[in-house]
Amino acid sequence: MKKRPMLTPDNAIEKAGNLISHSKRIVAFTGAGISTDSGIPDLSGIDRILKDDPYFTGDVFNLLSSSFATHHPEEFYRLYRKTFFQPNAQPNEAHHFLASLEQTGKLVGIATMNIDWLHQLAGSQTVFEYWGDMHKNHCVYCQRSFDWQIIKEMVLPKCPSCGHVIIPDFVMRNLATYQDAVAAGQALIAQADLLLIVGTKRSPNQFPQKTPKIIINEYPVLSGGNNFLEVNGRASVVFSKINQYLRTI
Question: CA–CA distance from 168 to each of 77, 94, 101, 104, 178 (Å)?
Fold first, then answer.
């Protein structure tokens, strides 16, 4: 296999900036790594939190089981608030950059695996959430829906109508994706002339091979493939540098 040429960090930023500058239908695909600088841990961080917890012996998939949340709601919410549920988190430079790119007409939309709603908070309009978001919650008994305000206000959120526990939709669905959002995201990706793949370990081979890609991760992607530029670093820092470069050209 031919070895990929190594770029200096500055050259990688310049090349990424030039790709963005010359593209007209950019699509972003984002994972947990885009939000770590907003104070929301990624799956590796959550795994460490759970392993360090003296009262919990499971992993992240045990935590996000509807059975666990329904039968052990106090424990579920104690851990949920230590990990996924960070309602005071604010968008970082990466979220704001993508929102501004959409406002200029270059970015046509975002497909995300995140549930934190930070893209929308930054101002992004076209966002397809594969797992929904933390705003969506339901009573396990009567199925009444609730915004996340009730999760903020009650230590153990219970339905005012029937008294049963309320849990997040993505947990109630046992991490099943929303197929309409996935289909919309895939249709969006199919029309892209440049993909920004940010904060996810998903292989570039899982995206259209002919579409140029910029992959932004804190650490290198352990994958083969071609037609992509890899820029390593925290997403907020990388996009801040790209934004600075774009202002000079």
Answer: 10, 26, 31, 34, 14
Residue 112 has pLDDT above 60, yes or no: yes
Closest residue by Cα to residue 230 from 1, 19, 64: 19
CA distance 235 to 213: 15
In whole angstroms, give the CA distance from residue 198 to residue 7: 19
- Residue 65 CB burial class (10 angstroms; 0-12, 13-18, ≥19): middle
Task: Give CA–CA dist 245/16, Å, rounded.
Answer: 9
Nearest CA-CA partner of 115 in 146, 154, 87, 156? 87
Would you report the helix, strand and coil content of the chain in percent, each value rounded to 5?
Answer: 40, 15, 45
Question: Do the strands 194-198 and 213-217 form a parallel or antiparallel pair, or are they unpaired?
Answer: parallel
Dihedral in degrees, nearest 10, Cα atoms 210, 214, 219, 220: 30
Please choose, from the candidates 234, 232, 249, the residue with its C-alpha nearest in 3D space to the C-alpha of residue 13.
232
Closest CA to 145 of 154, 157, 130: 157
In degrees, to the nearest 5, what angle opens at C-alpha 160 toward C-alphas 157 and 165?
Answer: 35
**Predicted TM-score of the model (pTM):** 0.92
Q: Which residue(s) pair with 169 in the sheet?
A: none
Percent of the chain whose predicted confidence (pLDDT) is above 70: 96
Tokens representing residue 103 in the block: 């406002």
Instruction: Say which residue the tokens 């059975």 belong to.
Output: 67
Examine the pLDDT at 222 and tell me if it is beyond 70.
no
Question: Using CA atoms, how far apart are residues 182 and 241, in angstroms rounded to an integer?
Answer: 31
DSSP letter, residue 22: T
